[in-house]
């Protein structure tokens, strides 16, 4: 392994200042948040002045450890670090930043500044995690070009991240109601099951079915049926507690998950939802007013020997069958060993 001898060469910064004054302010599309790590106050001042002249937001630090602390607390588009610094060198700072970024999806663009200019040094900088490498003293137009390159990469990365978030949201969102879809509900339910188990708190689920929805579709058309689904989605979302969430479970069925709610509390929420739905009035083009109702099945799991998510949904589904079998437009809670077993949901 090649070993490098640490050396520091001091250059007159009057030459750098002269060059900086000769460079016109570039037109950059992106104002970036830039972190500087350099123990030389004159170098830091000159660099920060030039970056601020180019309309960037600059944070300065005097060593690698201070820079790493700043990086942990704020998001920076670009990090410009000197190679030779006390306590933590530039390459060590690069490696530490890349380690911090492993838990996220965005990465800063790192430029390593140094008086060292060998190919070995260049390779070592890239291996440590730097994106670019510049030797001192550097002309401002060189820095300008490197920052333009950084801006392009940061902008591309941000756009890719935005599109990924949009794709993730689409994959977990029901297009019609804009609620969580079945896949997302299973994911969130699983996470809340683990969380409530750790905290030794109950977890409840409501399975909700719009009464006689097929008749609404047949009598008024699918466009009206879609509007009814949207109205029900809004009503349920506005009727549950803060921290609860609602998703479209399939067709005219919805699922509400109530973290921390026991069977009594969840039944109260279900009754409030049922009452609000019963109060809805939807006027169609013909002038006819549609009145809605829904049936609710409620179940909860609690205690150290609690069952899993599948059992919770199965129990709520069983209680929904009881509600429909008893005449619809009502809330039924699951009680083990009580009531008839459902028969493939024949009471549609």
Describe the protein.
The chain is of the alpha/beta class. It folds into two domains: 14-170, Response regulator (Rossmann fold, 3-Layer(aba) Sandwich), CATH 3.40.50.2300; 182-333, Alpha-Beta Plaits, CATH 3.30.70.270. Helices cover 47% and strands 18% of the residues. The chain is built from eleven helices and twelve strands. The strands form three sheets. The protein has a five-stranded parallel beta sheet, sandwiched between helices. It has a five-stranded mixed beta sheet with strand order 7-8-6-11-12, with helices on both faces. Helix 8 (213-220) packs across helix 9 (222-239). It is elongated, with a radius of gyration of 31 Å. The N and C termini lie far apart (74 Å). Mean pLDDT is 86; it is low at 1-28 and 344-348.
How many individual domains?
2
Alpha carbon gyration radius? 31 Å
Extract low-pLDDT stretches. 1-28, 344-348
Q: Could you estimate the helical fraction of the residues in percent? A: 40-55%
At CATH level 2, the architecture of the largest domain is 3-Layer(aba) Sandwich
Question: What is the percentage of strand-forming residues?
Answer: 15-25%
Strand count: 12
CATH homologous superfamily of the largest domain - what is it? Response regulator
Biggest β-sheet description: 5 strands, parallel
Q: Give me the strand/helix succession.
A: HEHEHEHEHEHHEHHEEHEEEHE
Shape: elongated
What top-tier CATH class of the largest domain fits best?
Alpha Beta
């Amino acid at each position: 392994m090649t070993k490098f001898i640490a050396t520091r060469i001091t250059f007159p910064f009057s030459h750098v200042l002269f060059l900086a004054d000769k460079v016109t302010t570039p037109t950059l599309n992106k104002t970036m948040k830039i972190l500087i790590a350099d123990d030389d106050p004159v170098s830091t001042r000159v660099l920060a002045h030039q970056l601020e002249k180019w309309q960037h937001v600059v944070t300065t630090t005097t060593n690698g450890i201070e820079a790493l602390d700043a990086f942990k607390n704020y998001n920076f588009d670009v990090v410009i670090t000197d190679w030779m610094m006390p306590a933590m060198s530039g390459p060590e700072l690069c490696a530490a930043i890349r380690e911090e970024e492993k838990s996220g999806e965005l990465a800063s663009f790192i430029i390593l500044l140094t008086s060292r200019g060998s190919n070995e040094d260049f390779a070592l900088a890239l291996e440590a995690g730097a994106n670019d490498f510049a030797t001192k003293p550097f002309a401002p137009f060189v820095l300008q070009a490197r920052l333009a390159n950084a801006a392009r990469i940061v902008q591309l990365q941000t756009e890719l991240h935005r599109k990924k978030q949009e794709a993730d949201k689409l994959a977990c969102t029901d297009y019609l109601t804009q609620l969580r879809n079945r896949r997302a509900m299973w994911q969130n339910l699983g996470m809340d099951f683990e969380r409530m188990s750790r905290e030794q708190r109950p977890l409840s689920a409501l399975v909700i079915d719009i009464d006689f929805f097929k008749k609404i579709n047949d009598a008024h058309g699918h466009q009206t049926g879609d509007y009814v689904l949207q109205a029900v989605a809004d009503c349920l979302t506005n009727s549950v507690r803060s921290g609860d969430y609602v998703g479209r479970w399939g067709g005219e069925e919805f699922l509400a998950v109530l973290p921390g709610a026991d069977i009594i509390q969840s039944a109260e929420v279900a009754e409030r939802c049922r009452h609000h739905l019963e109060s809805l009035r939807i006027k169609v083009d013909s002038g006819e007013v549609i009145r809605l109702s829904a049936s609710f099945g409620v179940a909860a799991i609690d205690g150290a020997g609690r069952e899993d998510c599948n059992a919770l949904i199965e129990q709520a589904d069983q209680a929904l069958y009881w509600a429909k079998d008893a005449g619809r437009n009502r809330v039924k809670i699951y009680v083990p060993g009580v009531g008839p077993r459902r028969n493939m949901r024949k009471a549609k």
